[in-house]
Design a protein that fits this description.
With about 190 residues, the chain is of the alpha/beta class. The chain has two domains: about 5-75, Translation Initiation Factor IF3 (2-Layer Sandwich), CATH 3.30.110.40; about 90-185, Oxidized Rhodanese, domain 1. The protein contains six helices and eleven strands. The termini are close together.
């Protein structure tokens, strides 16, 4: 599976700390929501990139190893992304979502970016990124019971409001988001889902 990226950082042949230095430089000048692929040969770069992403507030999506290369994927976070209050009228917690997935006919929409979805997502969820939710709302049935999920609950909170304005009555935000999900997921390992 190909992951759509906005930028590529070539760190092949470089060892610590150079993959981080090049990544940090690239991340400082890009828009929030952009996805960067860091291509490296240093096997230690996996732990380094993951740790740097966490400490810098960026979102480490994961690493795919292919043909001796480490392909790291990082999403540029918004400064307010994890701090905005959740204000959706209908909210469900992850435990309740698991019950609904097991026992009810619901539509689960993942509003994260395609690269985030490709790295890990809940089985049978649909990928409709937040930036496309308004234009793709016509693909959805107004009568469906729709649950929206993202990384932390903030983007899905915004998406529920967009759909509610379009006449959807049964839209629910899933909190706190997939970062705390303990149920089954489809993940990308070595290029295969």
């Amino acid at each position: 599976m190909d992951i759509k990226v906005d930028y590529i950082v070539d760190a092949k042949g470089l060892s610590c700390p150079m993959p981080i230095v090049k990544t940090k430089k690239k991340m400082s000048g890009i828009e929030p929501g952009s996805v960067v692929e860091v291509v490296a040969t240093d096997r230690g770069s996996k732990a380094d990139i993951a740790a740097w992403s966490k400490s810098s507030g960026e979102q480490y999506l994961g690493t795919v190893e292919q043909e001796g290369l480490m392909r790291h994927f990082i999403r540029k976070s918004k400064p307010t992304e994890v701090k905005e209050p959740i204000t959706s009228e209908r909210i469900v917690h992850l435990e309740q979502l698991q019950e609904k997935l097991n026992n009810e006919a619901i539509v689960l929409i993942d509003v994260r970016e395609p690269a985030e979805f490709a790295m890990e997502h809940i089985p049978n969820s649909l990928s409709i990124p937040l930036g496309e939710i308004e234009e793709r709302a016509a693909e959805l049935d107004l009568d469906d019971d729709i649950y929206l999920i993202c990384r932390t609950g903030n983007r899905s909170d915004f998406a529920t409001k967009i759909l509610a304005k379009k006449g959807f009555k049964k839209v629910t935000n899933v909190v706190p988001g997939i970062t705390s999900w303990n149920g089954p997921t489809n993940t990308l390992h070595g290029g295969d889902e």
